[in-house]
Amino acid sequence: MSKLIKTDICVIGAGSGGLSVAAGAVQMGAKVVLVEKGKMGGDCLNTGCVPSKALLAAGHAAENARKASRFGISTGPVSVNFDQAIDHVHSVISGIAPHDSVERFEELGCDVIQAEGKFTAPDTLVAGDSTIKAKRFVIATGSRAAVPPIPGLDAVPYFTNENIFENRVCPEHLIVIGGGPIGLEMAQAHQQLGAKVTIIEMMSILPKDDADMVSVVRDNIKSSGITLYEGSKTKEVQSNGDNVRVIIEHDGIEITLEGSHLLLATGRKPNVENLGLEQAGVEYERTGIIVDERLRSSNRKIFAIGDVTGGLQFTHMAGYDAGIVIRNALFKLPAKVNYNAVPWVTYTQPELAQAGMTETAARAKYGDSIRVVRWDYAENDRARAEAETTGFIKVVTTAKGRILGAGIVGRQAGELIGLWSFAISQKMKIGAIAGMIAPYPTIGELSKRVAGAWYTPSLFSEKTRKIVRFLLKLG
């Protein structure tokens, strides 16, 4: 017989967002049921952010060893054990997994049901042998790799982020279809670990990022030995014995590529199927569940967060969304999302980080009244000491100095962007950054230096010199 459970909040999906809602709500006194049909921790822990960054760390370590001669250090030929690199990936996952485990959430007080959940009514979800009636539901089912309709794809083996970390043999030649963050990160990781790599991108790589910064990443990708085809259409894939053949159209010419392995990194698809959304009265589109600024669906008692809404697909966004839902569902506060200061990072070498508006977006909204300042890594003493002078920081402001956006391409860009995300969220002016004391020598000095550069035209102008000369005459 079906077991009836009555609860305050039922969360569907135990990825980053769902776990944040469940942990927060239960510790604040709510009765919580957590439903997950797959692995606890979701995509981020098992097949996304965590394993990809662990593999990148292995690749970067190999590359840094190859470059050690810059400092007068000889390592000899670098030997890579790809199987051990994958061991590192899984050891990182295993180390984090207890934090996201069924046992931990049951200890917190959640009722965890490991089964597929499906709505049968606007206030009822069935999961396994349980029927759950809740005052509020939170759909946090995430997304999965989108598989494009390429002719012949159903007849060849291929990787997505969901299975590539199970591969324990370094590809002889990895062909990557897709030049977004996932495609570039996995391409670079595998190239640094010994694979020949080719990237195929229909448009241009990293289209959401600042074009000037993308050019730095592009140059690095090409100089590392990775072959890059941008503006190229993948027309067909074929099996050729143990290899895969990919036929593309590039600059009007048909080119045939042959590789040992194929990786698809062509975007994400929200997990909205088999949830019974129609029975729940929840409206959705191909891009995800439709929500308002309070993350409520068309059924006001059902919220949706993270990737399943089709918005910005970052783990930290799911965590942010979770906070909005808790304020609405538990405290009845009309909290609304504000994505104006969202940071994101592509973890290639060099890293590329962005927060707020790019220069292009700012010009589209404010015209030529904006001001843009930049500072090169080559002008930073710590970057020089570490022989990591590639890259720059760019900040976009209004004419009066309010910070609209910032982008950084270079070493530790992901670690530096948080300051700018905070400044944008607080509607700060650039003078606040210029006036801070930055420790020397650090890469973080870039932020202070670029902020100071905003004042250079006025501070060292003829008008300023006249004022100074006049004041000095006064004694």
Structural account:
The protein is an alpha/beta fold and 475 residues long. The protein has 3 domains: 3-40 and 101-145 and 269-329, FAD/NAD(P)-binding domain, CATH 3.50.50.60; 153-266, FAD/NAD(P)-binding domain, CATH 3.50.50; 343-457, Enolase-like, domain 1 (2-Layer Sandwich). Helix content is 33%, strand content 26%. The chain has 16 helices and 23 strands. The strands form 6 sheets. Strands 1, 2, 3, 4, 5, 6 and 18 form a 7-stranded mixed sheet that branches. Strand 11 (232-240) and strand 12 form a beta hairpin. The longest helix has 18 residues, at 49-66. The chain is globular.
Question: Could you write a compact summary of the structure shown?
Answer:
It comes from Thalassospira povalilytica. The chain is of the alpha/beta class and 475 residues long.
What's the CATH topology label of the largest domain? FAD/NAD(P)-binding domain
In angstroms, what separates the terminal alpha carbons? 94 Å
Beta-strand percent range: 25-35%
CATH H-level superfamily title of the largest domain: FAD/NAD(P)-binding domain
- What would the principal axes of the Cα set say about the shape? globular
Q: What CATH architecture of the largest domain do you see?
A: 3-Layer(bba) Sandwich
Poorly predicted spans: none
Total individual domains = 3
Largest sheet: 7 strands, mixed
Q: Work out the number of β strands.
A: 23
Q: Report the structural category.
A: alpha/beta
In CATH's first tier, which class of the largest domain applies? Alpha Beta
- What's the total helix number? 16
How large, in whole angstroms, is the Cα Rg? 25 Å
Helix content: 25-40%
How confident is the prediction overall: mean pLDDT?
Answer: 96
